[in-house]
Amino acid sequence: MGTVTLGVSIAVPEPYGSQLQQLRAGFGDAAAHGIPTHVTLVPPTEVEAERLPLIRAHLAQVAASFRAFGMRLAGTGTFRPLSPVVFVQVVEGAAGCTRLQGEVRDPQGPLDRKLAFPYHPHVTVAHGISEEAMDLAFATLSEYAAEWLCEGFALYEQGSDGVWRKLREYPFGSGPSGVPAQPGSPADEAAGAAGRPGARPS
Fold first, then answer.
1. Which segments of 8-130 does DSSP mark as H helices, in order?
2. Could you report the per-residue pLDDT of 159-198, keeping only the tens digit for each?
């Protein structure tokens, strides 16, 4: 069956998701067109396609045990010089994200993987572009603010065109099956309508 590249993340809801995606594209980051705005729980991970049913069952089990928690974004940060990334900071909800990603990446589960750096919840707004453009992103969003109630997460697959598309949503407390992605959802519209080949995950 081959392999697939998966990611698990918390979508930044509308209108914030599209706003940040357009700003990211405006800074010159072509990856913005193929990546719905998100907080990563599991970074891009290549797995055997035959493991998808097991992964979906695991994610549904994790979601069923969680309850909604508040998320708030404020201001910017950067991983430079270690990594060429500028991000909007998660100033409320970081503990919930950290606990959630730990359960999703449970060493006994099907999505166990090592991280290159310690987990740090954030929303990328510039990645791998010029220093000048990253400086602009850092300054432009320095007073950015958004907040919402996080009520679940989603599983995404990266297509051969580099675009990330949602496979299934997992609302907290949703039971064993999760909810299939609905055509026309904000994340799908952002990825599908604006998708371009060659996008990079971050």
1. 16-26, 52-64, 94-104
2. 999 999 999 999 999 655 555 544 433 333 333 333 333 3
